[in-house]
Each structure stands twice: as structure tokens, then as C-alpha cells.
Specification:
It comes from Choiromyces venosus 120613-1. A hairpin with a 7-residue loop joins strand 6 and strand 7 (about 90-100). The radius of gyration is 31 Å and the shape is extended. Helix 3 (about 120-130) packs antiparallel against helix 4 (about 135-150) and helix 4 packs antiparallel against helix 5. It has helices spanning about 1-5, 15-20, 120-130, 135-150, 160-180, 195, 230-235, 250-255, 305-310, 330-335, 350-355; strands spanning about 25-30, 35-40, 45, 50, 55-60, 70-80, 90-100, 105-110, 120, 245-250, 260-265, 275, 280-285, 290, 300, 315-320, 365-370, 370-375. It contains eleven helices and 18 strands.
Length: about 375
């Protein structure tokens, strides 16, 4: 849905630069203001922030069409790590209008990925406006002005400031040639570079493995199987073990020379034992239960990493094996699931709504192997 993609205000949106360049007008609906317009060029005010009031929704997009005979060209561009189905590094939407003398009368150069929000390259637009488009000097001035439009430093979020400036300039260079080709602006003295505007198509990558290595030595060049490869291939590898920690005896490890000590859950309070990149809800040391194979129980520290690793193998851990949880019903029975996230609730309570129904059908709908829900079905 276009409206949903717009209001997320992503600075690397594929769609927003095109809508901005085309002069799109958004129509919003609000309880307090009713219906009102918003210009796409003024819609984005900061990173992930837009001019849409909190009580409003977008109901319509209006993209103006050029009058018949208008010499207008609009193009979109995207640079990503993959050719298709990938998040953009830099996106662009360009529109230009020329008069009969090929002079630029209106232009919009909108970029994504060059600022915290979708922006227009104002300096480059000014360098082109009122000038004859297909002129090398004009193009050079526009590309030079782009340095002022995108002052990306090395601390910019997402990184790659130098790289991102390159496709931004190349997009303009390609657009310049595509407009010239589409409107037949080429002359004998200055011709369109068709290699610049032709699409590059690549075949599917493929490869093969040669198991014969004539240069194989004792270690260098030798094909060594992964340590866990055999267990994973035969199904013997353990991934999840639901077992509580009954007793941990670090005494044997402490007898090893140069071992300084150990730490475990008893050395940390509950707050310090939680970590996570976004939400700190992952325990560092197991407490009461060990939920997965390899989950840390404690840590031995010694004079060297090798000594600590050897001593850790001597730690005696006693487990009480619990029945494995393999089905959704088993997980629900022992409450082994994550808490619910956000819930969308609208209208009267469900129980009251059922009272007004002529028929109520109940059943269990299994969405997949990980999700189960009991959902009453109301006929319309």
C-alpha cells in the first residue's frame, strides 16, 4: 500500500523520491481538520518524521499529469547490493520539463539515502534551471553543485559516504543522457552516449568444486571437514535441550594451576544478567533452567585463554532432564512462549459482540507449526 510506505518516512524509500519529483499532492483526513492537502515536497520534516498530524490518515495521492505536448521526462533510479528485491543504498526520482529550445523550465531532483529524509538537490536544480539541458558545461556545473547538496561525513548513519556520492552523481549523468535520447537532443557535435543508458543484464552465477588439489600439503590446501559437519549431517547434533540446572561444581576447575576463579549467576543481580542489542531480555548466565545447548552457565578465568578453556572442561554440571516441548499444545500447557506484543483493539469488547450475533462458530485454526490460535468466527 503506497500510503503505508510513505508515512514510514524511510530515508531510503524507493517510492518517495519519485512521488516528490512528480509533484504529488497527498490528501489527508483528520477528525479535527477534516480533509486537507499536503505537498509531498513538504511532507518529510526529519528522520522518520512527517508533517501528518497524529489524528490523520492519508486517503488519496494525486500525481499531476503533464499537458499534451509538454516535453517532460521523469525517471527513477536505485542502487542496492542486489539488482532486485533489496534495500536501497541510494534512490532517486528525477523530473525535467523543457521548452521548444530545450531550455529547462522546471526540474526536480529528489534523492533518498543522501540525508536523514528524502530531499531535493536544490543546488543542482538551480544549476540546471533556465539552462539549455544538453550541454556539457551545464552538466558539469550541476554535478559540481551536488557536492553542496550532499555533504555526507564519515560519521553519517549507514556509512559509505564516498560511495553514496558516486551513484548520486552517476544517476544525474544517466538521466541527462536518457532525456537527450528520449527527446532527440543529440547533435553531430554532441551525441548521446547510448552505452550509458543501456540496461546491464547478467546471467545467473554458477560454480563448481574441484576435489582434486595437486598442490595439497600436510595442512595447506587440505580439505578438512567441519567439526560439527558429521553430527549435523546424521542428525546427531543437539540444538535445544530444556533442562534445569541442578548443581554446578567449579571445584575441579579451581585446582588447575594458574586458574584465578569463576563467575556465574550468583555473582550478578537480575538486572546485570540481562543483555540484548535492542531489548535487554536475554540472560547472560542460565538461571534455574538451561534452555539451549551451549547456553553459558558460568565462566572460568585464568592466566591464559588456553588454561581457562581446559579448566572449564572440568566443571561438573548435574542436570535434571525435562520432557521436550515439541508441539504448540505442549508449549501452551507449560506456558513456554513469548509474551504477546502489540494488540489492535477496536470497538466493543469481543464478549459483548458475540451476544449480538445470531450464530457463533468456534474452532482452532493452526496458522503454521509455530502459531496456534483459537478464534471465534462471526458470520457477516
Amino acid at each position: 500500500m503506497p500510503a503505508g510506505n510513505i508515512v514510514t518516512a524511510s530515508p531510503i524509500s524507493d517510492l518517495n523520491p519519485v512521488l516528490m519529483a512528480s509533484g504529488t499532492v497527498l490528501t489527508a483526513q483528520s477528525k479535527t481538520r477534516g480533509e486537507f492537502p499536503l505537498l509531498m515536497k513538504e511532507f518529510f520534516v526529519a528522520y522518520r518524521t512527517m508533517a501528518l498530524p497524529a489524528d490523520s490518515i492519508i486517503t488519496k495521492l494525486t500525481i499531476p499529469l503533464p499537458a499534451e505536448g509538454t516535453r517532460e521526462v521523469i525517471k527513477s533510479y536505485k542502487q542496492a547490493k542486489r539488482k532486485d528485491d533489496d534495500i536501497a543504498i541510494v534512490t532517486a526520482g528525477f523530473r525535467v520539463v523543457l521548452d521548444e529550445s530545450s531550455v529547462v523550465t522546471d526540474i526536480s531532483l529528489a534523492y533518498g539515502g543522501m540525508a536523514p529524509k528524502t530531499v531535493e538537490a536544490k543546488n543542482s536544480m538551480e544549476a540546471l534551471l533556465g539552462k539549455k539541458l544538453f550541454d556539457n558545461t551545464v552538466l558539469e556545473d550541476a554535478v559540481a553543485a551536488m557536492e553542496k547538496d550532499s555533504p555526507l561525513g564519515f560519521t553519517v548513519p549507514g556509512g559509505m559516504p564516498t560511495y553514496r556520492k558516486t551513484p548520486a552523481s552517476l544517476f544525474l549523468f544517466r538521466f541527462w543522457h536518457e532525456v537527450a535520447a528520449e527527446l532527440e537532443l543529440g547533435t553531430q557535435e554532441q551525441q548521446v552516449d547510448h552505452e550509458t543508458i543501456e540496461e546491464i543484464h547478467r546471467g545467473i552465477s554458477y560454480g563448481s568444486r574441484d576435489n582434486d588439489n595437486p598442490y595439497e600439503q600436510r595442512f595447506v590446501g587440505k580439505q578438512i571437514p567441519h567439526l560439527s559437519g558429521m553430527k549435523q549431517a546424521t542428525g546427531e547434533a543437539e540444538y535445544i535441550d530444556d533442562m534445569p540446572n541442578i548443581e554446578v561444581n567449579f571445584a575441579p576447575a579451581l585446582q588447575v594451576p594458574c586458574v584465578a576463579g569463576f563467575v556465574d549467576i550468583n555473582d550478578l543481580d537480575d538486572g546485570r544478567n540481562l543483555w540484548g542489542s535492542v531489548k535487554k531480555d536475554e540472560p547472560f548466565f542460565a538461571k534455574d533452567f538451561v534452555h539451549s545447548h551451549g547456553q553459558p552457565i558460568g565462566m572460568v578465568y585464568a592466566k591464559s585463554a588456553a588454561i581457562a578453556q581446559a579448566a572449564a572442561q572440568l566443571v561438573d554440571v548435574q542436570y535434571e532432564e525435562l520432557p521436550p516441548i515439541l508441539t504448540i499444545s505442549e508449549a501452551i500447557a507449560v506456558k513456554s512462549f513469548f509474551p504477546h506484543g502489540k494488540m489492535l483493539i477496536r470497538g466493543k469488547p469481543t464478549a459483548e459482540g458475540f451476544k449480538d450475533c445470531d450464530f457463533v462458530y468456534e474452532g482452532v485454526a493452526r496458522m503454521d507449526r509455530r502459531t496456534s490460535t483459537s478464534r471465534p468466527m462471526l458470520p457477516r
